[in-house]
Structure formats: structure tokens, C-alpha cells
Amino acid sequence: MLFFNNKLNKTRTFCACLFLFLFLGCKQEKETLEVDSLSILEAHYKTKLEQCISQLETIEAATSKDEAIVNYKEARATFKTLEPILAFVDKDNYKFLNAPNILKIEEEDATDIKIRQPKGFQVLEESLFDDTIALNQIKKNVKTTKNRLGLIHKNTKLNLKKHHVIWLIRDQIARVALTGITGFDSPVLEQSLAEAQLSYKTINTILEISKDHFINKDLLKGWQDEITKTIIDLNEEFVDFDRYSFIKNHTHKQLELLVKTQKDWQVVFPFELAFSNNMTSLFSKETFNVNYFSDSNKPVKNVKEKIALGKQLFNDENLSATKDMSCATCHHKDKAFTDGMVVFPKQKRNTPTLNYSSLQQSFFYDGRAGSLEGQIISVVDNENEFHTNLENITEAVSKNSEYVKTFNTLYKKTTDREIRHAIATYIRSLNTFNSKFDRNINNEENTLTESEINGFNIFSGKGKCATCHFAPVFNGTVPPAFNESEMELLGVPNSTDLDSKVSKDLGRYHVFKTNERKLFFKTPTIRNIEKTAPYMHNGVYSSLEEVVTFYNNGGGAGLGFDLEYQTLPTDSLNLSKNEIKDLVNFMNSLTDN
Question: Which 8-state DSSP code applies to residue 338?
Fold first, then answer.
């Protein structure tokens, strides 16, 4: 638990540093936007805040739900024009205003657990179409939302540097591609494509306000042409939209333009966030700054050598008390670092893949560890795994002269901290992004079938899969900030029998005994899912077709389970047999070379 808290402290410290950069500025005065540009941008931002507040007031004055819906759509549209700036300069308030309509649980530690009812636009959207919720109840949420926007307006003072503008635009480009066009925050109206158009208009406005920073004026013209084409291509029906082509032909082109822009503006970055500062693809080994997801968030020296050392340790059975178990005992490379079993002997849950596991913010199915290094401690201490302790691990390594020599060269010492870091460094190397899908969306080849492309579009559209399994990692860590790994209540059964019951494993509840967290589990990656059967935390399903059918029927609710906090939509997705086949074919295309 210490490591979980350390992770939280690290996140707080990092956010505080980012806040200082945003509002106090940095020493590089040449990085500051022109005073006139900042004034214009701030005035534009505040005007939109005022407009949104005014539109929310018309909902308060509405005499019927139909009238309130019309007024809500106007307020929501204005909110989405604010999104690129608001989501960057005020992340917490943006999350509050755009939170999903599910109970918010904050578990700092066993003595500090907060349970909050959600507020904001998504809640309003669902409430307006719920016959059981009265208009006066809706108006209470409107008032809370309006007051929060008023507070933001009162405290707004933009002090953006040029690198902030680059980050801001990159975040919004990624947000549209990875959550926006999936319907993540427009659950009922499915206005995601129209809202994406509005956010692109804001990006265009920001670039126009910043036009004096362009040395190459053709570059600005390139942006304007690209955004115009993007907005035209977004003019589609939600279900019919070709998300694969959009990302391939627009998102990646815009990321390339952004790298050209930061060079043209002579931008100096003080550090990297989750995305690498020079990334030009969402689906590449170069997309992420992997250190962002580690305890230290610092560049690692001698990476190749540390990976090799970590691999040795990963496969070394001498680290366990009985000298017959290593990390590789349960995590087989040929099975994408799973074991092919329903549950490994004497374990409680199905063995998860280690591929891409470093690109998340919590570990184990119940999220009880906050880092890879912290997770290793639990494996070491577990009486059904290594059944030892950190002191014994360190002693075992210290008895091996070759290990000692390598540790002295790479780390200058040999302690459990260095041992865990070496193993974690190896695991962080298991993010290759070289699947058939990756190679195709990056224009390296043209081999995806029509079924596989259609499957991705279903995954990211009609199937709503991407509203929990976020691309490009396809796990539950929410882009573009990647600072939170979501947990869901699906209602997984204990068997495939007709009279099955919900799984007895209470998941996250076991960590802090929070009743509202019973049956919640972390959303894992589906990359390499072709190799990681059986599926779910209890290995109940042996095929992907079974898994998709479970989702298609409404999860646990579809099986007749009464689960108050189920986060999976309870209605059928109405996927046809061909659509299910396409969806499975797409998932199989995520198998790495």
C-alpha cells in the first residue's frame, strides 16, 4: 500500500509542477505567447464561458423536458468549443463538468474514502432522456454545473507558453480520436462527430490567434486546409463513420503538422507528458514517454543493458523461496506473457498479460498496486508465488557474482529497489506496437481486410467497446492525460451454465472494503487478446465470441443479475452475427509480430 500512496504523491507533485508551469510561467521568456495573442485568446475563452453559463440559465427557465433538451444541446455545443482550452488549463474542473453518469469513488487510503454523485453535462444528457427523473431534479444539476463554470470564469487568467499551446492542441487531437468519436461523453445523443467539428474550429481559432508565431506561413495554410477537410469528413452519421480512415488520414497528418509547427515556432519543451513531444502516430512505439508511467518519471540510462538484466531476473527461479518459480512461470512469452490457464494453481484470478502493462496507472485486477515496482513486492510476498521477502531476494541476487558485477556497473549498488527497477524496466520494453493493425494504420502496409477495418469501426462506434478500452493501448487508462486507470462492474458470471450466478470475487472491494466497489475490476488491454485466452478475471470464457456475446447482451444485467452499480450499458448492443465476427477479426489483428 505504501507504493500505491507513493504513486498518488508522485501524481500530485507532477500536477503541481504542471500547474506552476501553466500559471507562473517558466524562465524562457521567448516561449511566451505575444501579449496581444494571449489577451485575444483569454477574451475568446471567457466569452465562451459566459455564453455557456447563459445557455444553462435557459435550461433553468425551461417549463418542459423538451424545451430543456433544446437548450441543453446549445449549452453542450458551447462547452465543446471550450474543451480544448478548458481540459488543458483546468483538468479537474473539466473532469467534473464532463464526468460519466456513474458514482465517483475516490480512495486515497482506508481512512479517506469519498463517494460522490456525478454532476455535469453527461449526467444532464442522460437525465433529460430519463422518464423517471423530474425536471426540478435536472435543474439542480444545471445550477451546480452553471456555478462551476462561473467559478472558472472568475478565476481564469491564461498565461500560456508556446509549448503549452502545442500540448493543448496535441491533447485535443488525441482526445477527439481516442474518446470523442467513440461516443465516450455523448452517451444518449451520440453527437460526438458534430462536437468534434466544434473542437476543431477552436483549434483553428487558436492557430489563427497564434499566426504571428508562424515563420512559415504555408504551414498555417496547411493547418487551415487540413482542419477544413477534417470538419467536412466529420459530417457523418455516428454508426456509419469510418474511424479507421479518419485516424489514418487526418489524426496522424495533424500530428505531423504539429511537429512541424513546434520546429517552426522553435519550441523548447521543459519535459514530456504521457505523449512523446515528437510523436506523429497514435499507434507507434514512439507514441509514449514510458517514464511518465513509472515511479520516477525520469529518463533511464543504460536502458538496453537494464532490460537485459531485468529479463534475466524475470526468468530466474532462484528468486523464489522454493527455487522453482520465476516471473516467467506464470507469464509465458509465447502466450503474450499469460499462462493459458483459467486460473494458475493456488491463485485467485486469471493471469493477465504483461504486454503494454506499463502503460497504465494501477496494477492487478483490483488496482491495489500503483506501479510495476510495487506490484513486484506483492508477488514476492505472496505465499502462493515467490513466498519470500525483499531481503531474501536481495540476498539471492547478491550471491551471484555476475549479477553483482552488472548491478555495480548499471546501478552502483544492489538493493531490492534496483532489482525491482531492473525487472520493471524489462516489462516496460514489452510495448512493441507492431501488430497487423498498427502496421496498416501507420501506412507501412495495406493488408487489413474489410472485415478487420469494419471491426475496428464497430469497436470504436456502435459496439461502444472503445469507451472503456481506450485506443491506442486498448485498456482502461483514459487518454489523453493517461493519469487514471478506470475500473468497471460488468457482472461477470461464475460459469457459462444457464443457471450461473455472478462471480463471487468482489474485486476492488477487497482493497478498502468500499461497498460501492464490489465486483469492480480494472479494464485490461485487449492487445494480443488472440493469445491470452481464457478471458475475464476468472477465465470464465474460452473464446472471444463468448466475450462479445456477453457484452452484446448487456453484461450481467443481460444474464438476469441485479447489479445496482453496473457500469456496462445494460441494453443490448444489437450486434449482428457478421458484426460480432468483424469485431473478433479486428481484435485478432492486434496480435504483435
Answer: B
Q: Is 449 exposed, middle or buried (0-12, 13-18, 19+ CB in 10 A)?
A: middle
CA-to-CA separations, 348 to 283, 483, 489, in angstroms, rounded: 33, 27, 18
CA distances, 512 to each of 209, 258, 368, 565 (Å)? 49, 43, 9, 17
CB 286 within 8 A of CB 353: no
Q: Which fold has domain 301-428?
A: Cytochrome Bc1 Complex; Chain D, domain 2 (1.10.760)
Mean pLDDT of 12-34: 48
Round to whole Å and give the CA distance between 77 and 65.
18
Contacts of 370 (CB under 8 A, 6+ apart): 3, 4, 5, 6, 7, 8, 361, 362, 363
- Domain ranges in the chain? 32-159, 161-281, 301-428, 448-588
Domains 301-428 and 448-588 share a fold: yes
Q: What is the mean pLDDT of the chain?
A: 93
Bridge partner list, 114: 106
Q: How confident is the model at residue 561, as a pLDDT?
A: 97
* 3-state SS, one letter per residue, for 115-130: EECCCEHHHHHHHHCC
Q: Has residue 228 got a pLDDT over 80?
A: yes
Mapped onto helix, strand or coil, the DSSP state of residue 288 is: strand
For residue 281 the three cell numbers come to 502516430
Asked if residue 5 has pLDDT above 90, the reply is no
The CA distance from 370 to 511, in Å, is 13
Residues 6 or more apart whose Cβ sits within 8 Å of residue 244: 441, 448, 453, 456, 457
Which stretch of DSSP H or E encloses residue 544?
helix 544-552
pLDDT score of 33: 64
What is the distance of C-alpha 55 from the center of its chain? 31
The Cα 309–Cα 491 span in angstroms is 41
Q: Which amino acid is at 374?
A: G
**506-521 confidence digits (pLDDT tens):** 999 999 999 999 999 9
CA pair distance 376, 448, nearest whole angstrom: 38
Summarize pLDDT for 300-340 with one digit per residue, the tens.
899 999 999 999 999 999 999 999 999 999 999 999 999 99
Q: Which residues pair with 541 in a beta bridge?
A: 535
| Residue among 491, 547, 496, 543 nearest 519 (CA) | 491
Q: Give the whole-angstrom CA distance, residue 543 versus residue 527.
A: 15
The CATH fold assigned to 448-588 is: Cytochrome Bc1 Complex; Chain D, domain 2 (1.10.760)
| pLDDT value at residue 295 | 79
pLDDT number for residue 34: 66
Tens-digit pLDDT profile for residues 90-122? 999 999 999 999 988 998 888 889 999 999 999
Cell of 264: 517552426
Measured distance CA(16)–CA(396) in Å, rounded = 40
Query: How crowded is residue 223: how many other Cβ atoms within 10 Å of its Cβ?
Result: 22
How does residue 32 score in pLDDT terms, banded at 50, 70 and 90? low
Interval 137-163 mean pLDDT: 95
